């Protein structure tokens, strides 16, 4: 019986899927430079597991995935820095940050596409409040942690912001934050 993470009596992450993913991550991380990369920080961020009764504790696995994403992002940064240099790395991060700011420069309640009035999306006021903090982070260095970006939760609202669009922007914010650590 595997004991990599604590198990839960309720629904938790499928143990076999998690163990298989961790083995793939170990192989990818220890692969020599120049090997074909199949696992990236971004793909780790989008990893999902089936829920099973008696599975691994989601909070413990999620915390491990965040640490794994950080490690892969640092390694990716090191490889690009070796191949292309600091200037290209930071130019790319700056361009992504500018794309984020361009989106957030839109007026409040109009920063993202809306879902229909019969569909639930993210509450625009919640999203706008958090994205205002992100603007302060990018423009004035006000503190926002990568953990806050990863774990932010917005209230649901009929006719709210399109969740996928907001989530993609938060992914880009995470990428930039990890790039400049």
How is the topology of this model organized?
Blueprint: E1 11-13, H1 15-30, H2 41-45, E2 51-53, H3 58-84, H4 86-104, E3 120-122, H5 124-140, H6 146-151, E4 156-158, H7 163-179
Antiparallel strand pairs: 1-2, 3-4
Helix pairs in contact: 3-4, 4-7
Protein name: DivIVA domain-containing protein
InterPro entries: CHP03543 (IPR019932), DivIVA_domain (IPR019933)
Organism: Diaminobutyricimonas aerilata
Shape descriptor:
flat
Classify the helix fraction into a percent range.
Answer: 55-70%
E-strand count? 4
The secondary-structure class comes to mainly alpha
> How far from one another are the termini?
38 Å
Q: Give the SSE string.
A: EHHEHHEHHEH
Give unreliable regions as ranges.
Answer: none
| Tally of alpha and pi helices | 7
Beta content: 5-15%
Radius of gyration: 18 Å
Largest sheet properties: 2 strands, antiparallel
Q: Whole-number average pLDDT?
A: 92
The strand order across the widest sheet is 1-2
Domains, number: 2
Overview features:
single chain, 181 residues, mainly alpha, two-stranded antiparallel sheet, 7 helices, 4 strands, 59% helix, flat, DivIVA_domain, CHP03543, DivIVA domain-containing protein
